Amino acid sequence: MNDFFNVAVMTPVLHYTMGGLQIDPESRVIDGSGKPIPGLYACGDSAGGFGQHGICRAATYGRLGGWHAAQQQI
User: Fold this and answer.
1) What dihedral do alpha carbons 47, 58, 41, 19 form, nearest 10°?
2) 3-class SS string, the chain
3) Where along the chain do its domains lie?
4) Structure pTM?
5) Could you tell me where the DSSP H helices lie in 16-73?
6) Is 22:9 a contact under the CB 8 Å cutoff?
7) What would the pLDDT profile of 31-54 be if each residue is shown by its tens digit?
8) Chain-centre distance of CA 36, in angstroms?
9) Which DSSP symbol is given to 62?
10) What angle do CA 69, 18, 38 make, to 5 degrees?
């Protein structure tokens, strides 16, 4: 009987930002005075933050931002 083994070398990679753009719960980018910038949204790693990162943050805030942007009258 032949036994086969697959080997992969994995290296940890940091994939989040400690800074980045500040967003509100609707993924709108917040300016320096704490007000949302009309028409500007961010999600995922570009939104910064430390508590959440990765695909879950991108998917959650991407969906919220997309939904909110679609509701806007242009």
Assistant:
1) 0
2) CCCCCCCCCCCCCCCCCCCCCCECCCCEEECCCCCEEEEEECCHHHHCCCCCCCHHHHHHHHHHHHHHHHHCCC
3) 28-71
4) 0.64
5) 55-71
6) no
7) 999 999 998 998 877 787 655 556
8) 17
9) H
10) 20
